[in-house]
Design brief:
It is a single chain. It contains five helices and seven strands. It is an alpha+beta fold and 229 residues long. It folds into two domains: 7-74, no CATH class; 102-226, Chitinase A, domain 3. Strands 1, 2, 3, 4, 5, 6 and 7 form a seven-stranded antiparallel beta sheet that branches. The longest helix is centred in the middle third of the chain and has 34 residues, at 77-110.
């Protein structure tokens, strides 16, 4: 049997949605301490579900429970597994992509100095720098000062706290940052929003404590460009 939750969690949800088995009544009443406790369990499960995904349809959750109790589930095990994997993989990606596109479109509408590339990178150039000293390929090395935040405004990493710079090969940067680095020359400064697909993608980055599917904002100065021979 395809199962998403532990047996204990399923039991809690069953009590909250079905009242201990059978069809759920329209207006259940708390007539005993067991009823009250069952309701509290339902509240806890609902809060847990909301924390994971607040868009989950509570009516469909309870319908699934009632159908299983009645012995008439609308999906078999394989269909349930397919629906779950589709939602967690493809549908999740589409929801994130839609949010990021809308967020960045709103940003560009609010600040006309931000532009978008065909890849989805959204950037604003603060200073062009020396156009004769630009990185050309991913074998070039740059020395940079930067600050990186997530879309909530939390600082992920910054060289400013360390009063330092970072020397790094362009090929070692996230794809969106590689693209942004090529837009200004030595001494140039750029602001760049990297959709998650141009940052660390669905894997995230454990060493920087970046969660999967995280859009990132960079403020970066190209201090020095070292070209490959």
């Amino acid at each position: 049997m395809f199962r998403l939750f532990s047996v204990a969690t399923i039991c809690f949800v069953l009590v909250s949605c079905s009242g201990g088995g059978g069809a759920a009544s329209e207006e259940p009443e708390m007539r005993s301490s067991l009823d009250s406790m069952s309701y509290v369990m339902g509240m806890n499960i609902a809060l847990n579900i909301i924390e994971v995904d607040s868009t989950i349809n509570a009516d469909m959750v309870c319908m699934g429970i009632s159908d299983v109790f009645a012995g008439e589930p609308k999906l078999n095990d394989e269909q349930a597994r397919t629906a779950f994997l589709k939602y967690m993989n493809y549908d999740e990606y589409e929801r994130i992509k839609h949010f990021e596109e809308r967020f960045l479109a709103d940003l560009r509408n609010q600040d006309r100095k931000f532009y978008a590339t065909t890849s989805g990178l959204t950037y604003k150039i603060q200073s062009d720098g020396d156009n004769k000293r630009r990185v050309k390929n991913n074998r070039d090395t740059v020395k940079v000062c930067f600050r990186v935040l997530n879309s909530a405004g939390d600082i992920i990493d910054t060289t400013y706290y360390r009063n330092d710079t970072l020397r790094i090969g362009l090929g070692s940067m996230p794809r969106g940052l590689q693209e942004a680095s090529k837009l200004v020359g030595q001494g140039g400064r750029i602001e760049a929003w990297l959709p998650s697909s141009l940052a660390y993608g669905s894997e995230g980055c454990d060493s920087l404590n970046i969660a999967p599917n995280t859009m990132l904002y960079y403020e970066m100065t190209i201090v020095e460009v070292e070209k490959t021979k």
